[in-house]
């Protein structure tokens, strides 16, 4: 059985350009440091828990010291994200992964606390031919795994709103697609998110 691919999505941790919603509680430099920490923690978790290939899809490019260190430390492949909005970027990556392995998933780097069991469950469902979504508390999702990359799930989506998950599921129903749902998690966008997650995820407490 071919193992699905897992493609992690991240922005380069550049001060002022990443994790801007952590401001003003955190400076742009500290927000970038937190972003870098979450990327590394997510990569480390993914390569230990996902039995198939793990890739890191990065925007706006792959030339960054942290990224070079990740390829050296974890032997993962870096891939620049496609042009367009988040939907276009994910659709492009999923099409490529499905073409290579038959099924594939995209996961953000905003939930380094998701745990080995969540990734293992996602892989198990995906490898058995299921579609998988990992809901977030704010109405989005942190994980999507597909057997077929349908544009209807990504085009003209209200990204960043609290309607992403419900819209995705409504469109899937029209397409006669079913999803298995992972545990709902809080993704880390704001200082309040960081504080709440750090109460149970010790590695983040260094930033409180």
Automatic annotation (TrEMBL):
Signal peptide: none annotated. Pfam families: DUF2064. This is Glycosyltransferase. It comes from Sulfuricaulis limicola. The lineage of its organism: Bacteria, Pseudomonadati, Pseudomonadota, Gammaproteobacteria, Acidiferrobacterales.
